[in-house]
């Protein structure tokens, strides 16, 4: 399972509301301005662009910046929409692996995902 599958899952119509996407963008911008600058946040919050386009562009932008940036997006998603986060294809795989004793802690899952499941 890759970030691309998670991105497809998240950008399908109705998964994320405008308000929720704005909260995630603002969290990334305010808490981690090195991850998302003011100018970038404004771009991804532009109400003139379709929501799924903005979300796709945001995820692609973060992927280009590296794993740490993507991890913070996932963390913001978990904080703001835990059920949706738990329903991600990548989380479903990790929870199944956890049933077999492979994924013990969230920190392990983050590191493990960034090094194996999420290589594009």
UniProtKB/TrEMBL annotation:
Coiled coil: none
Main location: endoplasmic reticulum
GO CC annotations, alphabetized: endoplasmic reticulum membrane; mitochondrial membrane
Keyword Cytoplasm: no
InterPro entries with a match to the protein in the record: CARD, CARD19, CARD_BinCARD, DEATH-like_dom_sf
Domain CARD: 1-92
Record note on quaternary structure: Associates with BCL10 by CARD-CARD interaction.
Protein name, as recorded: Caspase recruitment domain-containing protein 19
